[in-house]
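Hi Y.,

Following your request, here is the sequence exactly as I used it, all 417 residues.
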Amino acid sequence: MNVIIIIAALLLINSCSDRDRTNPFDPNNPFTHGAPTNVRVKSHRNTIELRWSKMDVEDLSHYQIYRAIENAELDSFRTISADTNFFFDTSAKYDTTYRYAVQAFTEYDAGTLSDTVRIIPGPVNFIIADFYNFVVQKLTYDAEHIMAVNYFPSPIAVEIHPREGNIYIAEYWNQQIIVTDPELNPVNTLELNDRPIDFALDAANQRLYILGYDQNQLIILTTLGAYIQSIPLPFQLAVKSHICFDSLSVCTWISVSGKDSLFQVQLYDTYQVQAYPGIIDPKKVYPDPINGGCWTATDAGIVYLSPDGHICRYLEDRYITDISVNQQNGDIYYIAYQSDTKSWETGYLDRSFDYESTPIKGNEIPDQYYIQVIPGDGQRGFLTMQVGSWNLLRFDNSGKKIGESGWYSGRLDIALE
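Below is the corresponding structure, written out as tokens. Let me know if you'd prefer a different format.
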């Protein structure tokens, strides 16, 4: 009888011990360690959203939010009711580092402080179309946090409507333009009769200009999907062909990988096509926001093609993997490789000083193949992708890394929200 009593007591002790370890408020709990879990953060302009998983504790009284700005210590910031698991900080300022942590309280005890999360808010977010990974993501301003994600069979290009906020995604294999809301939920599908390889958005006139690969054409639709016209192109497109809309010159500019020309298609009148030769293997094209015309990266420097066909060349001794045009002040950001010195350079051409080159990063960040500048006045921050790590790297205007995310593929398209 005594043996039975002893065994029962041992079972009771073990049972109680198990229950203690499953209590999420217990600091010895192997999963929670007594703290709120799944603490996450994202930002939209000057609003920072903080969320966490609720703690299943009967006598939970409240949560305490702690916040630190830049290098300061965490300090008590807000008290949140026990039935809430989110908080919106609307007092945030751009280009400032914020850190947050959450602590749970009962009437008689305090839990453990959660892991700390970090974010830098700003005026834009990044929309990343990753063709080979079949995904479109919205990243925060610091490129550290995913705000929204959705999967598509072949997202080859992406644009965002600046007024409506809808996101347009070119679907290569499905021969469609998919329109989503800002959270990447599809709201409309624009059917095509061709595989799109790139497209440009004319928001003012609500038009889409789409390069169709199979039939070698420029397809013009309204942003609602109504068919306007198809223009046969007198040159052969490649899968790596690109288009941009030039609102100042009222035309589109088209580049084709492997061709040594840029092409201009005049719009709204006769849809005339003009070829401009002598540009070695142009890559993606960008409209110039100040004077019209377009910019492109080439195997022999950066090229500006004016609306009247005049060509200006910069950094001709370097292979340029990509450029990005600051659509507010006209500066040109670039990634360059110099084969004779085997050196990499990330910098910008300053429009205020006749496009003089200013390096920002060198060989410490090699093998970069995409760049996206943050619009604004003065020297700006930028986003790049590094081959090998396949990560997106976010730098501030001085070249200091402020964020990183991955893993991405070798074919991306980037838009700004």
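The two ends are 75 Å apart (CA to CA).

Thanks again,
Q.
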